[in-house]
Amino acid sequence: MPSVAGWPVLNLAWLITVTSPCLRLHYAAGSDRGRVRAQNEDRVLASEFEHSEVILLVVADGVGGHAGGEVASQLCIEQLQLSVDKAVLQARSGGGYGEHWLTQTLQQAVLDANQKIIQQRKQQAALANMATTMVALLIKQQTAALCHLGDSRCYCYMQKLQQLTTDHSLLQDMLNNAEIDQQTFELSPLHHVISRALGLHAQPKLELQTIKLQADQRYLLCSDGLTDSVSDAQIQYVLEQFRDVDQSVDELIKLANDHGGPDNISVVLLSVDDG
Questions:
Q1: Which residues of 225-236 are buried (b: 16+ CB within 10 A; e: fewer)?
Q2: Angle in degrees, 0-180, between the axes of helices 232-241 and 245-258, rounded to the nearest 10
Q3: pLDDT tens figures, 219-250
Q4: What's the domain count of the chain?
Q5: Which of 81, 87, 205, 228 is 20 to 30 Å from 187 at the Cα level?
Q6: Residue 24 is part of a domain; what is its CATH number?
Q7: Rounded to whole angstroms, how far apart are CA atoms 137 and 146?
Q8: Would you give the DSSP letter of residue 164?
């Protein structure tokens, strides 16, 4: 579980298949509290919006203690879904899906979620330290928009595993700025100190990418409860051995738990296949 710089049993899974022109999308999601923590502060979302071919996939990892963390991550996924649903209804009512609809919609949804969390922090003193990491894919047909804050990650697997996001963490920022070397980075105990999250600032610095989906790709969204316990090589091995997305999600969560399960573990997996 990440902590913010300066700040000190849920199990679920589901499988959905959607057909887009030329492509067939299969996705599954799962979340587990792990072997150590009493509560699960992670939340996952895999939502298809009716009559739109729009899909929203999200992993959120709450920060700020079990009360605040689980509230922040829940607010995040609820607001993202509400904001995207509103944008879909507007598009279907005549606004249409423009060239930049995916990135603009995801950006606004993330800003809406950020504002929702900040409002709750101000209203309840017990939630004053809450925030959440987030990684989200918003998909329509063969295109996706990707946005993340914190150390929840997105990977793409197509013959080899590639990390598409860069952690927003104190150590990663220092490494990027050449303030520390790779050895110091790897040995430091401060990997859980994040530098960006939803709920910290009124205007969060967002990174958005546009992705063209291709057959035989798989996209993995996950919390640090997976990546802190399971290496990239082990993740790739699971994706190579298990083609079924539901089974892959189960195996990744099981592997993290087999390695001690020190944190909540959340996984969303998208498989892109020929239609």
A1: bbbbbbeeebbb
A2: 140
A3: 999 999 999 999 999 999 999 999 999 999 99
A4: 1
A5: 205
A6: 3.60.40.10
A7: 5
A8: -
